[in-house]
Amino acid sequence: MTTTTGAEQQIRSSHLIVTTAVTAASGLALVIVILLSLGDLPDRLATHFDLSGAADDTMSRALGLTMFLLVGLGLPALLLVVFARMQWWRGDEARRFAGFLGALPVGLSAVFIATVLANRGAASPDQVTLSPWVFAIALTAAVVAGLAVGLMVPRGVPRESSESVTPVALSPHERASWFGRVQAGPLVLLAFGAGIVALVIAAVTVGIWWLWLVVVGVALACAATTSFAVRVDSSGVTWRSALGLPRGHVPMSKITDAAVIDVSPADFGGFGIRLTPGVLGLVMRQGSALEVTHGKRRFVATVDDATTGAGLLLGYLQAGSRPDGTTRR
């Protein structure tokens, strides 16, 4: 359980105020440009451009502007709410994560603002052009905003020490198993679902067949990375997704320690299967997690009842048990 001190409250407030202000300012700029340009926009908007800057796809004005607002304002706001619930300001990566939350709305709003202004005054979409440099400028603005936010907010709240874990008493030839689950919460599923819905709307509207392949691919990726089963037994730690793949195994012979630690998705740069230097994480929420050390690497999973899983692993380590039933020397 985490406690909140005055210093921690100040860090939390700083992260929330800065990222919310950047998201609100970016969204407000997009809304103002749309309102000021509304009377000068054609019935159909050029919404996609080839490498030369010529328009190669269109949407109705109402649908196009709605999509700009949903993606440019709604998506960053939704992510801000989701990650606020996960307390991204905790951990060593808090400033980088705040930078990402600041960069995203700036970059998206810049692209959509440029697109609206390019359509302004055009008699038809085929008269609209958008310089490829616009995307480079938007990316630069996003990077600058992200760096500025990362520098403005304070360092994250230090992680709490590992919880005390009591090893399960096992004789050298005794066997026991423990099963846990890493499950995405409602807000994470809502964020993934919103992304899929946006892709479906785009596929239906644009009519490009290969966009449906993207929809199916994203849906399968979400299904494969939002729920995992974790098992601890005499062979070590085994994990697999709800679809069966991806999956992995840490042999007991390589495990050197087990613990329960406090983690945040901000420590890993997001949700799902996360790879950071020396760490493989199955991260779906903020809070306690099972940590398994094997050599110079770690496996971290935000399972329920991580204390029991860690205790069983420590019990096997103390008993010196190997998968073949022999004991360590």
From TrEMBL:
Transmembrane segments: 16-39, 59-85, 97-118, 130-153, 184-203, 209-230
InterPro entries found in the cross-reference section: DUF1648
Record domain DUF1648: where: 29-71
Keyword annotations: Membrane, Transmembrane, Transmembrane helix
Keyword Transmembrane attributed: yes
UniProt-recorded name of the protein: DUF1648 domain-containing protein
Biological source species: Ornithinimicrobium cryptoxanthini
